[in-house]
Amino acid sequence: MDLDDVSSLETAAEYLKMTPEKLRRMAHQKKVGHIRAGRQYLFPREALETYVKENIVERLPPSVNPWGISDRSLRRLREEDRRGQQRW
Fold first, then answer.
1. Does the pLDDT value for residue 26 go beyond 60?
2. For the chain, which terminus, N or C, has the lower number of CB atoms within 10 Å?
3. Is residue 7 classed as helix, strand or coil in its secondary structure?
4. How many CA atoms lie within 13 A of 22 on its CB side?
5. Residue 41, φ and ψ in degrees, nearest 5
6. What is the pLDDT of residue 87?
């Protein structure tokens, strides 16, 4: 989706994949940069791009579990190894 230099509330919300109401609340809480023109909220492109860059969540590394067993079973096996218990 292309953004104009200044976007309306609805366009900015669509770009950020959230509801206009949520974006309005975030603007009110000063979590995203905006301009108020009377009762209308306007969002500069730079403010939206900054918000996206600051709120990117990195993908977690894959779990180190070469056997494909559940996390609970893996924890139990590791605990048994620490205690020196026999598995079978």
1. yes
2. C
3. strand
4. 8
5. -100, 130
6. 57
pLDDT at residue 31 is higher than 90: yes
Rounded to the nearest angstrom, the gap between the alpha carbon of residue 67 and the centroid of all alpha carbons in its chain is 30
Burial code (b: 16+ CB inside 10 Å, e: under 16) for 17-43 equals eeeeeebeebbeeeebebeeeeeebbb
Give the three-class secondary structure for 69: coil
Q: Determine how β-strand 6-8 pairs with β-strand 35-37.
A: unpaired
User: How many angstroms separate the CA atoms of 53 and 47, rounded?
Assistant: 10
pLDDT in tens, 35-64: 999 999 999 999 999 999 999 877 756 666
Query: 61 near 69, Cβ under 8 Å?
Result: no
Structure confidence at residue 73 (pLDDT): 85
> Who contacts 50 (Cβ-Cβ below 8 Å, separation ≥6)?
33
For the chain, what are the domain ranges? 6-54
